Each structure stands twice: as structure tokens, then as C-alpha cells.
Amino acid sequence: PGGAGRKPYFDAGANDVVDVGVSHEELLCRVRVLLRLKDRCDDLHADRRELGTILHKSQQTIDSLETANSRLHELCLTDPLTGLCNVRNFEQMLSQEFRVAKRYNHPTSLLMLDMDHFTAVNNNYGHPSGDCVLKELAAVLRNEVRESDVVARLGGEEFAVLLPQTDADQAGQLAGRIRLSVAATQFDAFGHQVQLTVSGGLATWPRCPEISDPEMLLYFADQALLLAKANGRDRIMTVSDMDVNVRRQMWKDYRQQN
User: Fold this and answer.
1) Cβ–Cβ < 8 Å for 159, 223
2) Nearest CA to 246 among 198, 200, 179, 201?
3) In sequence order, which residues have a C-beta less than 8 Å from that of residue 202 and are 6 or more positions away?
4) What is the tens place of the pLDDT at every residue in 192-242?
5) Does 66 qualify as catalytic in the annotation?
6) CB-neighbour burial class of residue 184 (10 A; exposed 0-12, middle 13-18, buried 19+)
7) pLDDT for residue 116 is more than 90
8) CA pair distance 116, 198, nearest whole angstrom
9) Residue of 74, 136, 157, 210 with catalytic role
């Protein structure tokens, strides 16, 4: 058929329509053309399937890389032993929180903690036992603080708790609870039950007018911690409760060092 007579066949899905009187040679040529078209379609389908496989594997690789990057980021921010913030992360968060506190005039407190006589645990039971104790101490701290607080391990048996929007009285109450909780805990040193205490130093901005930046907040809290250790341990020393002359001397010492 010719002209409009072929239309129903094409509408029905035919790829070609051959007249009854077509020559043998033309018929073979038409068949070869259709076979080439089929081969190309088969190749396209195969390429599509291969591309789909490649895209699927690529997405799996991307997902794996994102997971690895997330894990790497976490490792860069946390202490590997306790899972708490590490020093670098803590210093960044302290600086950020202090800027926010000054901008909105919110009180901010910092509690420095050090486990008393911790060296004896390592000496008597070994460093793996000491690591177990530090992990348990981290758990005690997590249990006592609020969700908005930041707990960090600064190194060895020294820890810090950043308390946003917390004045000296509120921080003092929290520090007291932490001290009592630690004293009441039976720490497991690989089968040996040990009782330990902590000493702490607490500084609050703007309660202490000598403090003007995050580094000073950290310094004053650390100095209060040293005083707590020197005055018998198992106690919290608060900078705002110190004599003004003591605070001024701390300020002078800080300025000389910096």
C-alpha cells in the first residue's frame, strides 16, 4: 500500500511497511536496516543498564564518603577515650559562647575539674584501669549537666564544664552536685572498686569584673582549681567568692603572662 494506506500499519506499531511487489534486493536491504536499528537499540538498552549500575555504585561511594567524613569530623571534635569534647572543640565553643554572652548580657560560667590523687590509680592498678575510671567519670558528668552545657576533657584527668546562661549561684549548685556524685561513685578499676574525689574551680562572667575575654575566664577557673587542690582537695573554689585583692593579683598575673 502507499500513501495513506500505510498509516494504519505505522499507527499499529510497524517499523516499516513493504509493498507486495517489492524486489528481493530491496526487501533484504530493508531487513538489514531494521536489524541495524535493533542492534543499536539493544546497545542503547545495555548502555542504559550499565549506566544505572555505575550511578548506583557511585551513590554508594558518595554515601560511604559522607559517612566517613562525618565520622572523621566527629573524631576531630571529640576525645577518643571519653567521647567528650576535646580541647580544640572546647576552646572554639568557649569563644563562641562568650561572644554570645557579652552580646546579650547573659551570665556564663566555667567549671574546671581535676580528679584527686588519680595518679595512684594508674600506679596501683595500671593505666588501662585509669582509662576505665576516666570513662566512668565522663558518664557521671554527663548525667549531672544540662543538655545545653558542654563537657570536655582537656587532658589527663582534667575536665571542663561550660555553663551557658548560668550565674555563679546556679553554677555553684551544679558544681556541688557533681562533687558529691563523684564522691559517692564506686569506680571500677578492672575489678578493683575505688572511691575518688574531684576538686574544682569556678569562674563566672560578668560576676567577676576582672574577666573580660574567654581566655581569662578559663585562666581564672583554672587558678581557682589550683587553689582548691592546694587547700585540701575535694572542694570547689569559686572566683567570685575570693577576696578582691586575690582576684586582682590573678588579673595581674594573667596580664604578665600574656
Assistant:
1) no
2) 201
3) 109, 110, 111, 112, 168, 171, 172, 175, 221, 224, 236, 237, 238, 239
4) 899 999 999 999 999 888 899 999 999 999 999 999 999 999 999 999 888
5) no
6) exposed
7) yes
8) 5
9) 157
Q: pLDDT tens digits for 168-177?
A: 999 999 999 9
Look at the block and give the residue holding cell 575575654: 213
Burial 135-147 (b: 16+ CB within 10 A, else e): ebbbebbeebbee
Whether 78 contacts 85, CB under 8 Å = yes
Q: Which of 87, 86, 80, 195 is nearest to 137 (CA)?
A: 195
**Coil, helix or strand at residue 154:** strand
Tell me the mean pLDDT in the region 118-128.
92
